[in-house]
Structure formats: C-alpha cells, structure tokens
Design goal:
Number of helices: 3
Structural class: mainly alpha
Mean pLDDT: 86
Distance between the termini: 61 Å
Shape: elongated
Order of helices and strands: HHH
Low-confidence stretches: none
Helix content: 55-70%
Length: 96
C-alpha cells in the first residue's frame, strides 16, 4: 500500500511538472498545479484501491494517472485569444 501511494504521488507530480512545462500559459499558478497533481493522483489511487481491493497495482496506477490528469484539467485556464468585436446590429432590428 505504501508503494502504491508513493508511486501515485510521483505520477501526479510528474503530470503536474509536465503540465507546467508544456502549457505554462494555461497553468499560471505553478504552486497550485504542483500541489493539485500529487493530491489528485493519490486520491485516485486510494479510491481505486478501496474499490478493487489489494492485488491490482497496475489498475491503481492507471486510475491515479487518469484522476490526476482529470483534476489538473479543472485548474487549467482557457487559452488567451484576442477578443472579437461584437457584430453590428441589424438595421430595423430591435435589441433588448
């Protein structure tokens, strides 16, 4: 159990580091990202282990990776795009 938890934390930290490295504009709060990754992966590993029971280390690590990536996507911000100008109002059309 300890090795699975340690492995999940390391997987989550690796996912968070790669997210901040490859997409720095989407993860501006680096400390939040580096804290969310390991915690999310550990949560996924513990939840999967409680559902499947002992003896499924590969499935636990896969779930840790999936939950870590999913919860990191919640922290991500959308990319910065140039704002579009609103369309001109149609003549004779009333707007609220």
């Amino acid at each position: 159990m300890i090795w699975e938890a340690l492995g999940a934390v390391l997987i989550g930290f690796a996912i968070a580091l790669s997210a901040t490295h490859w997409l720095p504009d989407r993860f501006p709060a680096r400390t939040l990202t580096l804290a969310t990754g390991p915690v999310a992966a550990l949560l996924g590993a513990l939840l999967t282990r409680s559902i499947l029971g002992p003896g499924h280390p590969v499935q636990v690590m896969i779930a840790a990776c999936a939950v870590g990536a999913a919860l990191l996507s919640v922290v991500a911000r959308p990319p910065h795009h140039r704002l579009r100008r609103p369309a001109a109002a149609l003549k004779g059309h009333r707007t609220a």
